[in-house]
Amino acid sequence: xxxxxxxxxxxxxxxxxxxxxxxxxxxxxxxxxxxxxxxxxxxxxxxxxxxxxxxxxxxxxxxxxxxxxxxxxxxxxxxxxxxxxxxxxxxxxxxxxxxxxxxxxxxxxxxxxxxxxxxxxxxxxxxxxxxxxxxxxxxxxxxxxxxxxxxxxxxxxxxxxxxxxxxxxxxxxxxxxxxxxxxxxxxxxx
Length: 190
Ligand code: AP5
Ligand code: MG
Hints:
The protein is an alpha/beta fold. The protein has helices at 14-25, 32-41, 45-55, 62-74, 91-103, 118-132, 139-153, 156-162, 175-187; strands spanning 4-8, 28-31, 82-85, 110-115, 166-170. The longest helix has 15 residues, at 118-132. Bound molecules: BIS(adenosine)-5'-pentaphosphate (AP5) and magnesium ion.
């Protein structure tokens, strides 16, 4: 499978759909949020930097994030495709990813954008707070994450459009339907 960049607001389903895609196509998966949460859990230097920023809904600096991404990518088996979940989140990260992959003779592949209304996102994340207790799933921090998404990440959609990579999928109330639409598209790439 080609590389896939899964893109969308907090709670849009990047992690959920990534798991389903990995199961169907047998590819690698990098969730930068999960990588950072593991660093925090292990008490590393990166984790110490990340904790305050994540708890406040802010992004980790690009330079550090790009280093982490390259290291994580190089540790995965090569050749079966990778789904990038939560990266890139800024135009600088997108340019860096393009360069990093080109240096390795790889392609960025396609971008899958999940479009979900904000009321639904808020409900999902508050529900996850009860189920999983993620530190950044509280109303105040979620609002900051939405604001950061709108100001720093959403403009990237136009960057992907220019690259001819953008494919959008809009939430219409059914997880199965959204997933079926994504699979129908991804099946054409195999
Ligand atoms: P990250 O972990 O990536 O968080 P996020 O972008 O806020 O997204 P979430 O993981 O909250 O949501 P999701 O889209 O994965 O949705 P999910 O499938 O879980 O990043 C966290 C932080 O790390 C950032 O704020 C930043 O500080 C830092 N960071 C990470 N990457 C970075 C980068 N590249 N640069 C700088 N900083 C970075 O679904 C949400 C919930 O909804 C789940 O509980 C799910 O079960 C539920 N759900 C209910 N119905 C549905 C449905 N129909 N479809 C999908 N999910 C559903
Ligand atoms: Mg996630």
